[in-house]
Amino acid sequence: MHFPFFGYFDYLTTITKKGQDYDSVPILASNMIIDLSKNRFEGHIPSIIGDLVGLCTLNLSHNVLEGHIPVSLQNLSVLESLYLLPNKISGGIPQQLASLTFLEVLNLSHNHLVGCIPRGKQFDTFENSSYQGNDGLRGLPPSRYCGRDDRVPQATIPVEQDQRRRRRRR
Predict the structure, then answer these.
(1) Cα–Cα distance for residue pair 43/140, rounded to 1 Å
(2) Which GO terms describe its cellular component (predicted)?
């Protein structure tokens, strides 16, 4: 994918967003929303998108994108919404994306993602629907265990039932 229209102005400003000051932010690069959904774009998500540090919303949904989620998206420190549904994106979700503390909305559903869902911070708050249609994903919040083996952890046994079992063994 090629984005020739990403220019860069020399006008700088200080922006306070959610209690955090950002000095010398280029005006064009701050509070930016990119919605390129439903365009039938093909190819990989360019890692240069990670250079758009003022990006608040990235919507690349309903295209035919493939390849991996670029690790460079970790640089989008003010990103609030990320929509990559449905495409043909494969590989894992980069653990580095767990550092995106402003991320409130995530939808990676209906791709070909595999591996463990990152843990920590915002990723612990997203609903199962953010990941549905990616049969290779495991971890929380989806109900598949992510650890040394792929077994689902067994349900806890009520205390009374556990005590009865122990008495029988004696």
Answers:
(1) 29
(2) plasma membrane
Reported as type and span, the H/E element at residue 160 is helix 159-169
Could you give the strand order of the β-sheet that contains 88-91, starting from the edge strand earlier in sequence?
A: 42-44, 64-67, 88-91, 112-116, 136-138
- Is the pLDDT at 152 greater than 50, yes or no? no
Residues 136-142: contacts with CB within 8 Å, 24+ apart? 136/112, 137/93, 137/113, 141/117, 142/117
pLDDT at 58: 97
Q: What is the pLDDT of residues 38-86, one digit of tens each?
A: 999 999 999 999 988 889 999 999 999 999 999 999 999 999 999 999 9
Q: Which two tokens stand for residue 94?
A: 């980069």
Residue 12, by phi and psi: left (phi above 0), alpha (psi -120 to 50) or beta?
Answer: beta
Calpha distance 148→139 (Å, rounded): 11
Tokens of 28: 């064009």
In which residue are the tokens 């990235």 written?
58
pTM: 0.69
